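Researcher: For the annotation table, I need structure tokens for MerR family transcriptional regulator. Please keep the output clean. Sequence:
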Amino acid sequence: MKIGELARITGASVRSLRYYEQRELLSSGRTAGGQRFYDQDAVERVTLIKELFAAGVSSDAMVQLMPCIHSGTATPAMVERLAHERARIDTEVCRLAATRDRLDDLIVTTRAAIPDAAGDGAPSE
């Protein structure tokens, strides 16, 4: 598939896909005319890259981890790095859950302070 189709399917921008290639997170072939083309596995790979970025994994870490993720071959250092990233994500999940809980408390407290917040919007008498 061409770069535009991969971008459409994955929701990644063409610019992002080129960046992923530059960082060697993604690879493509070239047509005789020099256009990039990707195999079907690229969809899963781009999806994973986007998920890792969303979880706060840096592109440098991904460069180190991708060989282990996709080929199944790993060094002890790669496994340790995967474990480190998972622990970091667990910490972030806990922090986000605590923030969500605080927001829930604020919502309850704030609603309770608003006259007729649970009612139909008509002024109380």
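Researcher: And a one-line annotation?
Model: The first strand starts at residue 29 and ends at 30.
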